[in-house]
Structures are given as structure tokens and as C-alpha cells.
Amino acid sequence: MRGRLKGCFLLGLMVLLTVSGFFFTPYPPNEMDIPGRLEAPSSRHWLGTDNYGRDIFSRIIIGGRPALAAGAFAVCIGLTLGTLWGAAAGYYRGWLEEVLMRMADGLYSLPSVLMALLAVTLLGPGQASILVAVSLANIPIFARLTRSLFLSLREREFILAARAMGSTNRRIIFRHILPNCLSTLLVQASTSFAAAILAEASLSYLGLGTQPPAASWGRMLKEAQSFAGLAPWAAIFPGLAIALTVLGFNRLGDNLGDRLGVKKE
Amino acid sequence: MYWLKKLGAMLATLLLVSALTFTALYFLPGDPALLILGTEAEPGELALVRAQLGLDKPMAVQYWHWLSGVLRGDFGRSLTFSRGYSVARLVVSALPVTIPLAAAAIFFSLLLAIPLGALAASRPGGRLDSLVLTLSQTGLSIPAFWLGILAIQFIAVELGWLPPGGMPKWRADPGGAALSLLLPALVLALPRGAILTRIVRAAMQEALGQDYIRTARGKGLSEWTVISRHALKNALVTVSTVAGIQLIQLLAGALVVEQVFSLPGLGRLILSAVLLRDLPLVQGGIFAGAALIMALNFLLDSTYPLIDPRIRGVA
Fold first, then answer.
1. Close Cβ partners of B9 (under 8 Å, ≥ 6 residues apart)
2. Cβ neighbours of residue A83 under 8 Å, at least 6 residues apart?
3. Would you state the pLDDT for residue A1?
């Protein structure tokens, strides 16, 4: 019970912090203060300052945006398109399934890092490329999951009954089968959200995502690596922000899975 | 039959991936000829270079040209690395970094996951079990590259136990090369090991609930024999079927960790190609990355029948 609360607490805290950044940050996140550079955490700068004297706490608040945006995009687009994709394959079967699933397998085998490198080549470095990459990477994940759920559900008696009563295919898919997939998809959604945050951070670390002077957790770590010896806090706190947020989403997924009785692979 | 079928599926997927990347890069704005000759070039010269590179042909012809080159081991030439370097050579020179790194990380993650997972499953709900669960949940939430940055700072720089990055050539200094891969491999192994621990634990729990375990206990075998010989063997079959995607993720993570530790591997190669817009190298590098992943997957798929004789006849 306590673990359950903790997971949601963490998540709530990080989301609240990020959202509050739209209204307020302790310091302007891009304001440089050269005399006050590389300051250790203190009552003035809670998490210290970086090599330009920028307040790390403020930058962490702002840096949550690209991370949460990546998660939201990955889940919204991956869930919507992937579910439709998998539902079509798992319900109609036949050559359609064969073609759709081959394509999904092809996409699936390109890990999001390679996908992102490709997206950056096409669109240039920036947040947009990352969003495209994490969204694309999640479509086959949801497609494969939905298909496997459909394959077993479509043979069940209540579907047979619905069909016998003259329900259209569309009605069977959206009203009868899909609602039964919801809990499993929800658990996957929170896992995907966590994975997308990690992917965004890695890609920003590689310099492919958020561009300076804007802040993102991965980007902050990339910059901090060069002066980690002088200011270890600059290399510690952004990573902690990533880990805590991801932990929150993973816990949420586990708790949802336990509560809804979803068997996870 | 089983292997042939898997091999066929792998080649088909690889073909699809290559067509996908090729199509994507084909529609990219920008002119490689302009990149080679510079903006001062005469239109006539540009046309000549375009014709040399085959850029004036339709897309399908260009793709065929590229694909038939690949079949002969010719991936084209890099546009940015000192002219004349073939993409194949650059990619091949990166593999002795990436493959040992990934292999070592896989080894370490299994070394972590199998004993911990088995131990946790042997007393479900116990103190050790909940400790392992908490640790693995935390471990899988930590980004490997962050762990890498911290490891370089605290283990390599301050304690000086291991090299902080870079890597000597294998031929010049094999010991040093192996040593410089140790820290990156450990960093890479930790998050994956955390996930694998959960997988091993779940599989072990299922295996320990089976009738044959009761039989084994009933005939008076020691708990150690029951767990290691009867349960673990069966659990590993389940583990090997779901571990594939984790290993793919590990390989993807390797590409990032190479950057953290400045290792001259495939990830760094593709990254620099992307940032310099060296399209032949991007295409070849991504193809090699995908091929590596497929090969790993194939290797894993082909071990199932070895572990589990029941699969040999089917599939």
C-alpha cells in the first residue's frame, strides 16, 4: 500500500514541478551569472549553478517539458495508431494481417535510437525529430500487443454471440473487443511513457534533441559531463530527475497491472 | 527447417529496413554533389559528379544499385571521412568495439539477473524478494548514460580504478582495450540486468509452482538441486523467449554509452555521420546496426531448440 502511494507521489511531484514551470521558476532558466558559476547547492541556488551560472533547479523544472512531451506523444500516437493497426491485423486476419505484422516487425526491429538518428538526418536535430522517433517506435509495440489480444478475444463466446446477433464488424471491434484490451494497453502505456522519457533523455544527451540554450535533462547532462569534476551536482541532479520520473511511471505501470490483474511479460 | 525459416524472416526484415532508410534518405533535401564540390562548383561539374554517383537515375534504380553493391560488400564511399574511405571499411573498423562491448554487457547482465532472480523467486514475498524487486525497479529507471557519466567521474577519475574513456587498438594493447571496455559494459549491464532480474524471477516463480518440482522435492532432492537443476533450466526457456527485446535495447544502449566513454564504435560512427549529413555512411551504418540486431535475434532464436527440444519438431 505504501509503495503504491509512493509511486504516484513521485510522479505527481515531477509532473507538478514541470507544469508549475509554466508560471514560475526560482530564476529565469537561461539567465547567465558568470561570477556565480559552478556554485554548490545552497539556500540561494537549491541545486547549485552550472558553468554559466544558470540555476540548475530552474533548468530542471523547464527541462521536464521535452521529457513529458516525448512520453505524451509516444503514448498518444503509439496507442492510437498502433491499436488500430493491431486491431485490423488481429480481427480481419488473412493477408492483411501478414502484411501489417511484417511491417510492424520491420519497424520494431529498428530501436528508437536508430529511428531517431534517421529522423534527425531527415528533419535536423531538434525536439520534433525526437517526437517523431519515439512515436514511430511505439506504434509497432502497441500493434503487436493489440493483435495478440485480439487473436485470443475474437474466438471467445461473447464475440460469437455478438456476431450471431448481427453486430457489424466495426461494432464488434470497438464495442466488444477493444474495451477488453483496455487494461493491458493502459499498463503498456505507462511503460511506454517511461521508455520514451529515457529515449528523449538519451537522444538529447547525444545532442540530437533540444538545442541550446533551451534545457532538457539529457542536454544538461551532456553539458555537465565536461565539468563534472568541478561541479558534480550539475551531473547528478538532472539524472536524478530522469530516474525519479521514470521510476514513477514504472511504478504506476506495475500498480495498474496488479490492480487490473494484467499479466505482464 | 526451423533455422531456414528464421533466416528467411530475418533477411526479409532486413530488406524492409534497408528500403525504408533508403526511401527516407532519398527524399532528403540537399545535394551530395554540392557537398563534395562545394558551393563554388560549376553546374557542369555538378552534373558530372551526380552522374558518377548515379544521382540522376530514378529512385528504384538507385536503390537497386545500392543493394547490389551491399551484396558484394560495397556500401559506397563516405562523403566526409577523408575521401576514399569506404563505408564498409569504416563500419567494419567500428565492430571490434561495439560487439565486445555488447557481448560483455549481456554477460554481466545475465550474471546479475539469473542468481538474483532465482534467489528472489525461491522465497516469494520474503525480505530478499522485496529487496530485489525494489532494487530492480530502481535499476531499470536509471539511464545508462547517466550512470556512465557518474562512473567516469567517481570510479575512473577520482578513484582511478579504470580508464575514464577512449580505447587503444586491440592489436596494440589488448589488455588495455579490454580494460577500457569494462566500465562501459558494467554501466550498460546494470539497467538491463535489472529488467532481466524481474523476468527471471517471474519465470522461476512459475517453474517452481509446477508438479515436477513437487515431485523433485518429494523424492528428497536438496533445495539447491531442485532450484538449479529442475526449476532454473525450465525457467531459462521462458526467459530466452522474452530476453530478445531486452538485448536489442541493450545494443541500442551501447550506441549511446559509446558516446559517453568516447569509444570509437558503431554508435559514434553513425552519430557523426548524421551530424555531418554523410548520407552513404548513415545508410550503411544504420543497415549495419539493424543487421547486428537481427543477427543477435537470430542467434537467440536458434538457441531455443537447443535449450528446449520440444521446439525442434514444431515451428
1. A105
2. A142, A143, A146, A178, A181, A185
3. 45
Candidate from B24, B143, B294 with C-beta closest to A109? B294
CATH, domain range B92-314 = 1.10.3720.10
Between A128-137, A218-227, A239-248, B56-65, the lowest mean confidence (pLDDT) is in B56-65
Collapsing DSSP states into helix, strand and coil, what is residue B77? Answer: strand
The angle at the Cα of B81, spanning B79 to B86, to the nearest 5 degrees, equals 75
Q: Is the separation of the CB atoms in A110 and B297 below 8 Å?
A: no
Chain A: give the shortest CA distance to residue B97, in Å.
18
User: Please, what are the domains in chain A?
Assistant: 2-19+56-260 (1.10.3720.10)
Confidence of residue B197 (pLDDT cuts 50, 70, 90): very high
| pLDDT given at position A265 | 46
Specify the pLDDT at position A71. 94
Distance between CA atoms of residues A170 and A162, nearest Å:
12
Tell me the pLDDT tens digit for each residue of B95-137. 899 999 998 998 999 999 999 998 888 888 888 888 998 888 8
Number of A/B CB contacts below 8 angstroms equals: 126
pTM of the model: 0.87
How is residue B287 written as a grid cell?
Answer: 543497415
Chain Cα centroid distance, residue A185: 14
**All cell numbers assigned to B277:** 549529413
Closest alpha carbon within chain A to B275: A121
* CB neighbour list of residue B77: distance below 8 Å, 6 or more residues apart: B83, B84, B85, B86, B87, B280
Domain residue limits, chain B: 32-74, 92-314
Cβ contact, residue pair A206, B271, below 8 Å: yes
